[in-house]
From TrEMBL:
Entry protein name: Major facilitator transporter
Protein keywords: Membrane, Transmembrane, Transmembrane helix
Chain segments annotated as transmembrane: 48-67, 79-96, 108-130
Amino acid sequence: MNILLGTFIGLLLIYVIAYTDFVLSRKLKMQVAAINDQGRRDYSFQPLSWPLAAGLALGCWAVLGLLPRQALYLEYRILLTLLAWGVMAGLVYWFLKQRTNARLAQQALLLLLGFAVISGLLLAPLANLLNQMLPW
């Protein structure tokens, strides 16, 4: 009975994850397309571009490499990281607001920051492994 219940719950979780991934990725693609279409149509600028997203992601996670590892307590490192992320988000928002309007800049910034945080969470273990393997 436990095996049957565990199999049922596992299949249900896989179904929910697959369905959510399909629905969310479709909605996300539609939202990105709508933001870029409005930006191109009204301002001839594409707010969501790969170079901007990659630059923001590298900037957000390069901050962690600049902080001293042993000299600061964890709380101070977290505070400085969040402060740097806030400054970078403000700069990107200002840049997007200069090129488009405030509403479009806010919509694009939320997606860009989401991409930056998620890509850093996925690539941080790889960067740690490379840092340990390569002698500096």
